[in-house]
Give the backbone structure.
Amino acid sequence: MAQLRDDCFAFGGRLIPLDDALSQAGLQFRRENRPGDSVGLYDALDRLASHKVESTEAVPPHPNSAVDGYAVRFADLHPGEVTTLPTDGYAAAGDRPEPLPLGHARRILTGAVLPPGADTVFMDEDVGFPDTAANGAAVELPPGLKVGANARAAGEDIGVGDTLLQPGQRIGPADIGRLASVGLQSVAVLPRLRVALFSTGNEIRDPGQALGPGQVYDSNRHALAGLLERAGAVVSDLGILPDDPDRLETALFTASGTADLILTSGGVSAGDHDIVRRVLERRGEILFWRLAVKPGRPLALGRFGDTPVIGLPGNPAAAVMMFHVAALPLLRVLEGGSLPRPLSVPVVLDFAHRKKPERIEYVRVRVAPDAQGQLRAEKFPREGAGILSSITWATGYVALESDRLSVEPGETGQYTAFDWTFSAGRLKHLDGGPHDG
Ligand code: AMP
Ligand code: MG
């Protein structure tokens, strides 16, 4: 069959499946034993743990009451009938526990340590909120409660020796809460990635400059800076470079001195001005630059000296899509983690779609539940790789695998939310990383 000139996928060589390219680049980019910094809990949010952290404390530290009510010794109850016990004392959260005399019930509030001897708590609702003002007043305890009811065991949340953080794990707000709950004030984290970011193209201008004929504003660098920041990187903004190999080479050389990663956009396809790819070929190394994905086929993965370089496509929607599916996973590898697999869920596709074989297509979709609670995906009406509006409209993407050539309304597809790709440090890993299982 003749290849059509407008099929931009028709030219030159084999297209590499994205997963293969990422796995191989992941091996090349792998950083092990990056030294950690110790940070206070307030600075730990979204950082990656550099070491495994195990608890030396139990949480809660002592058995305590889960409710407001009356603590008793289960053995004092009459099986199958109401038991009436005199009350003795009062236990609130923070009080030092006093032993419970035989045959008594103790007024107890939520969080109070169970008095030694007590093992079971009747909640106020089950004993009809008796007048508790008078110490010694009797309380009627109905039958039916199990031993240990409404009592929280010491260590039921966290036991001594339990894992609080795995190496490489992204630290979330509840993780910080768990560290605090065992009394830790600081945690060892991996250093943030330093990413040098620039755009390429003679036609690219910064907002604030006047646009000449044929020129466009730089949307990529601004969108990518935000994505990098959300990913936890420290961004060094190197501006816009013209399509000039010498200037590019100088910029790459300078950036490679301080950055852990160089991220560019534009200049990676097969055109005359596609200098990022050519300079890397000449002065560094190109691992891949033709991937079997749409949008985003021209994506250069390589290095300049020892510094990894990810050359994203120039088309703005392709640049952002490829950031999510290619750059972000590799960022995690460079940080010292392993290659994450994005979380996806099945959704009903409310659209028809045709695609070419042998490449994954990321269809930008908006997902919402229907009246039955079933998630349904709509696709953005315009598919071009330059249409950044598709990304702001979409909530995420549906990945259509290589061998799937068409979609009819009502079929199912695998959906990934853009926001979920950022939590990838907590999710399953392609290569059996630390959080598998
Ligand atoms: P390229 O990959 O350099 O061939 O660029 C592909 C398309 O994306 C061209 O239309 C460029 O003008 C456009 N483009 C490249 N870089 C940017 C950028 N930083 N911001 C907006 N559009 C861009
Ligand atoms: Mg260009």
User: Anything to note?
Assistant: Residues 199, 201, 203-204, 216, 218-221, 265-267, 269, 271, 313-316 surround adenosine monophosphate (ligand 1) (CB under 6 Å).
